[in-house]
Amino acid sequence: MMMMMWDLFVAQSIRDEDGEGKGKKEKQEYLEEKYPNHPLLPHDLAKKAINYQAANIVSSSIQPLVMLPVLNYIGENVGPEAKIQWVQKQAGKGFAALEKLLKDYAGKYATGDEMSLADVFLAPQIIGLSQRFNFDMSEFPLLSRLNEAYKHVAAIQDAMPEKQPDFPIN
Amino acid sequence: MMMMMWDLFVAQSIRDEDGEGKGKKEKQEYLEEKYPNHPLLPHDLAKKAINYQAANIVSSSIQPLVMLPVLNYIGENVGPEAKIQWVQKQAGKGFAALEKLLKDYAGKYATGDEMSLADVFLAPQIIGLSQRFNFDMSEFPLLSRLNEAYKHVAAIQDAMPEKQPDFPIN
């Protein structure tokens, strides 16, 4: 499983046989069906739905709103301070929803004691926001705990952007 | 299948046994696995991946950027004209990606001659943007053709917001 999570977590782009690049979410869905022996999703339907929900909160309600083109637009047209406030507000709303969603399911990781789809989406979002914006995680105790747990997952640490061969040095 | 698509297309919220509301994308995923006899996804893996991609372009790269909270923010902090330009630019990027993605797969509908997941995401996005913003679809011939096709799908027409019992009259 870790290898597959890796493919997903590290990859900036994967290409299938006909050379078509894919986004992160569809990569996961594609890999999951192409490699059914390495599940990122639990078999239990309700728990699977929680994983979908968590992944989708990140990919539809947080990430698109805090990505660079949006932040640059706000920085240029409203102001640099507004940019930070925007991130705190939008990511804060998403994180609050995730805290509520995961509270009855979280174990060592987001939905139990095994890494699963939810973690694959949560880890880069939480790590990225804390590093790039000194995002204050103190209101989000569950996500803060997951953030700590991710520090001990070698696969996540090895997948950090700065460890990749094409990470820009300057 | 139509009934299920309808559940999905119409629903502002569905609730499972424990009363948890869900977002649109996870509703689809949940319904698909709960009612496997009414597939929204083709069996062919590559075509399925195209459906995932199209759905995700809508749910992660278009919808979050053109939703009301974002547009209100831009309207208030940058200006009303900026709001329209923003929608044209962001939705335009997403629509251009969809044109390219679907060009080798589209039939009567997005990925063939049957309605599928891609259509369930595309229809409300295309219809919503054309109605709310007079969005100029002329650069997007394939999506314009789909938009015409959707006008003849009774289920889509019946699911229009103004046909719902809780549609605000004023």
Characterization of this structure:
- The structure is a homodimer of 170-residue chains.
- The first copy, chain A, has 170 residues and is mainly α.
- The first copy, chain A, has one domain (40-163): Up-down Bundle (Glutathione S-transferase Yfyf (Class Pi), Chain A, domain 2).
- Helices cover 63% and strands 0% of the residues of chain A.
- Chain A has helices spanning 2-10, 24-34, 45-66, 68-77, 80-102, 117-133, 141-150, 154-158.
- The longest helix of chain A is centred in the middle third of the chain and has 23 residues, at 80-102.
- Chain A starts with a helix and ends in a 12-residue tail after the last helix.
- Mean pLDDT of chain A is 83; it is low at 1-20.
- Chains A and B meet through helix 2, helix 3 and helix 4 of A and helix 2, helix 3 and helix 4 of B.
- Chains A, B: GO terms for molecular function: glutathione transferase activity; maleylacetoacetate isomerase activity.
- Chains A, B: Residues 44-169 form the GST C-terminal domain.
- Chains A, B: Belongs to the GST superfamily. Zeta family.
- Chains A, B: This is GST C-terminal domain-containing protein.
**Strand fraction of chain A:** under 5%
Low-confidence stretches of chain A: 1-20
Tally of individual domains of chain A: 1
Helix fraction of chain A by DSSP (H/I, runs of at least 4): 55-70%
What's the N-to-C terminus distance of chain A? 34 Å
CATH architecture of chain A: Up-down Bundle
Query: Might you state the CATH topology name of chain A?
Result: Glutathione S-transferase Yfyf (Class Pi), Chain A, domain 2
- Strand and helix order of chain A: HHHHHHHH
Largest interface: A-B, 31 and 31 residues
Radius of gyration of chain A: 16 Å
Instruction: Determine and state the CATH class of chain A.
Output: Mainly Alpha
How would you describe the oligomerization state of the chains in this entry? homodimer
Overall mean confidence score, pLDDT of chain A: 83
Using DSSP, what is the number of strands of chain A? 0
